[in-house]
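hey
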């Protein structure tokens, strides 16, 4: 299946955790409104992320390792909490798309389910919630160009992209990213738009690494 076919449509606003694999992951229609229909989207047995008591910095233990100098903690034009959902059908059906937790699998491989992306003051945190893949690192923004670096999966490699955010949807276009693993990182970031959501009122209890700015 080609990447274009896999990215045919993105369904945002699905209560992912309420859907059993026996019946397949089923998505609703595309949407741009934050948190529409996502109440209870994550029902993992893992404890929920800590909830902030107002605008805060990320906890020190969440700081990505600075293989290269970390950027200053300053607001950027892309800051926000984003999510997207892929159906089992979009990811190739039961034979190819069922998410599995794998400690030795190729990083950034996209499976069915919900993915989240937190961009906050030069720090990025990406999670594939069902297969439990996580990535973190730093980024800088200059005009319409964003550079990701200090990613533990490709520690000294900088990935450069153009970005745009329209009607609550953030998109990345690859400029240059030599991170290995057959372009998996660039594919993950650019495969489909990321929808900006109000995570504090979304009903999503678990957000990696923390629900920034929410009131307990």
């Amino acid at each position: 299946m080609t990447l274009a076919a896999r990215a045919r449509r993105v369904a945002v606003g699905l209560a992912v955790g309420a859907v059993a694999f026996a019946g397949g992951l089923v998505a609703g229609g595309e949407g741009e409104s934050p948190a529409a229909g996502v109440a209870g989207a994550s029902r993992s047995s893992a404890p929920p992320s800590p909830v902030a008591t107002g605008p805060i910095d990320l906890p020190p233990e969440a700081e990505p390792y600075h293989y290269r100098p970390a950027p200053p903690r300053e607001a950027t034009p892309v800051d926000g909490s984003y999510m997207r959902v892929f159906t089992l059908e979009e990811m190739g059906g039961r034979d190819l798309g069922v998410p599995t937790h794998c400690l030795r699998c190729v990083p950034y491989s996209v499976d069915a389910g919900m993915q989240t992306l937190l961009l906050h003051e030069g720090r990025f945190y990406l999670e594939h919630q069902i297969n439990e893949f996580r990535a973190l690192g730093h980024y800088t923004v200059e005009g319409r160009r964003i550079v990701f670096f200090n990613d533990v999966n490709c520690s000294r490699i900088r990935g450069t992209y153009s970005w745009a955010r329209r009607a609550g949807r953030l998109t990345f276009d690859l400029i240059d990213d030599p991170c290995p693993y057959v372009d998996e990182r660039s594919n993950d970031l650019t495969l489909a738009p990321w929808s900006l959501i109000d995570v504090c009122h979304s009903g999503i209890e678990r957000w990696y690494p923390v629900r920034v700015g929410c009131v307990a």
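Residues 184-190 form the longest helix (7 residues). The chain has one domain: 3-201.
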